[in-house]
Request: fold
Amino acid sequence: DQQVKQNSPSLSVQEGRISILNCDYTNSMFDYFLWYKKYPAEGPTFLISISSIKDKNEDGRFTVFLNKSAKHLSLHIVPSQPGDSAVYFCAASADNDMRFGAGTRLTVKP
Amino acid sequence: DAMVIQNPRYQVTQFGKPVTLSCSQTLNHNVMYWYQQKSSQAPKLLFHYYDKDFNNEADTPDNFQSRRPNTSFCFLDIRSPGLGDAAMYLCATSRDAGINEKLFFGSGTQLSVL
Reply:
């Protein structure tokens, strides 16, 4: 079963605008959430994370929001840059069990 | 730079012919993972090692085996590859097990089965 879902396979935004990537999960035991970024021919790299005790975590242009009641998290990128074009994976963890979404391909157009 | 290295980048094998994928790490992390990712799907955890302790996912086929001879190396053995085993195989490490750990991934090995 797919416990972490990214319902948008792709997203296209204009440079300088906001990118919003969404992720839903079903397992209420998840207590740590992460976003990974993947460029072609490379492995995923860690981008930002959030603990279930928080509802927001910010790191430069990247902000992750967590809505536990809705079992939903989102990644905001402001302002978006062409170098942000990549596949973004949402992940959720409980103990040592980390589950991934299928990814959203973000394209930032100059 | 400390990193996770996977070889080869591309691997072609024949149906039923055993194949081994390798992973090495210079991070000195305790935990090593193998994920399978098929096209446009989520990476799926096959198994992981916490130090020398092997942890198999319940739905990982018996066809898949793993070895970790030392801290730095971990191998994925596919005993009799089928066409459905064609996928990207990702190796990852984490410093420790438990919450708040992030994974460090290799670049992956793309396996083709002919």
Remarks:
- Chain B has no helices and eleven strands.
- Residues 62 and 79 of chain B are 9 Å apart (CA to CA).
